[in-house]
Amino acid sequence: MTTAETLTASLEDYLEAIFHIIAEKRAARPKDIARRLKVSNPSVTGALRLLAKKKLVNYAPYDLVTLTGKGEEAARDVIRRHEVLRDFFVKVLAVEQDVADKAACKMEHSIPGVILERFIQFAEFVEVCPRGGSKWIAGFGYHCDYDSAMENCEKCIAQALEEVKKKKRQGGKKKMPVTKLKDIPPGGKCKVNRVAAGKASSRIIEMGVVPGALIEVEKIAPLGDPIDIKVKGYHLSLRKEEADGIDVTPLNAR
Amino acid sequence: MTTAETLTASLEDYLEAIFHIIAEKRAARPKDIARRLKVSNPSVTGALRLLAKKKLVNYAPYDLVTLTGKGEEAARDVIRRHEVLRDFFVKVLAVEQDVADKAACKMEHSIPGVILERFIQFAEFVEVCPRGGSKWIAGFGYHCDYDSAMENCEKCIAQALEEVKKKKRQGGKKKMPVTKLKDIPPGGKCKVNRVAAGKASSRIIEMGVVPGALIEVEKIAPLGDPIDIKVKGYHLSLRKEEADGIDVTPLNAR
DNA sequence: ACAAAAAGTTAGTCATACCTAAAATACATC
DNA sequence: GATGTATTTTAGGTATGACTAACTTTTTGT
Hints:
Helix content of chain A: 40-55%
Oligomer: homodimer
Number of strands of chain A: 8
Mean pLDDT of chain A: 86
Distance between the termini of chain A: 33 Å
CATH class of the largest domain in chain A: Mainly Alpha
CATH topology of the largest domain in chain A: Arc Repressor Mutant, subunit A
């Protein structure tokens, strides 16, 4: 929410590349950037100077390149747009991974914030809504024939209804115990019920960890200390204390 | 399917603007283009020269601007991308018209063909599938609370099931008469059953008027001669003979 | 018909974003 | 520690795409 500067598509690409190279290796060499973006070496030098002027990278001639705080923030923002688009293409539009990735790469620079948020919300809605869940999304692609496959449609909806009823019965029995975020296994998803005040840093709230939000647990470190999650497209790393204050409802059983 | 040339985003904007201005008035003056795109007059002159070099516009100094055949094709392509995006944002993502339009304007230059087709297919799927119809899309936006609103979800699906069953009963009774395209009222939608060979020009087939395709009737001229339709984002104008050869199933009652 | 206004073009500038060729620097190895 | 190679930068070039200022052509009003 702090960055507002207007970066060109090209500079965003450089930032993104630098971020990824740094994530893989320790620091980025101009050569690596050039190879990744398929541009010549002098082009990289030029871009680095522009980025340095905007205080987004730490750059001195003949030295390794790192991102400044501002630069990392901007890079994460680009990457978030990229990932949100890619995931939407893959999960909702049933596009193949690599095709989706290339498309996201092209479109990530021009998508307005409002639309991005809607992409996220829509993907979540599809995931959560029993009427439009994963089964439904799977049905997209073989558009059932309007009249001949009417029976399929009926079966499809009837089954969805059955599942909701079953889940309701189970829910009534099990009384849904209070679950902590740390109890969600990696890859699992859950919905936030409550975030204990005080324990959560404002950063977490800002990124969208609020009651009602959907969380995907990405990785839990051995001792449960850094818990990596994804919320609204943002990757977050939570300390144990922070995670302990978050009550959730598991969402796996869909 | 004939155009392949790589046009810059800027030149696409110019083509789009020229097309729209010509549609409103008879021909485009550089001044109109400049006002519409909010650029200076010399910028327009420069762009027109580039477009003329690419044989996309007919341009001579101090003369009015018109599009060549190739230019009109390219312009329609840009506009199709724009409209597909906008409609998806409005109809599927529930974004407001003007916001959607602005977003489409930005993104129309970078969307790959594959993704565009998926946007169209997805919007059609949502429209046709009884499980994910207009009622379902309307539900997007107030993501029902996971556990508390379980009852709503159940009701929603049960209602959808009821509607499918009802439609099935009606369908069985009414025996679905053979409907001609010309009998669909403006604004109505239908699905193509059969396209009489010979009568249909290859242009129509190429644009996607094939059995199974969804058609939206846009306008029917007084004597039923030019029938304007939209298929897969393409605007087509059909002659009476062409339209007569197209059997459809109406899709209004959803 | 002709002067004023409007529209359009030319000329020259600037910034981005690429490129190639050549020079400078860093490193790696003997 | 010298030297060769790989990396990086500088220098200089091209194309797009925008701008302002100044000039030319067309249109319009009297």
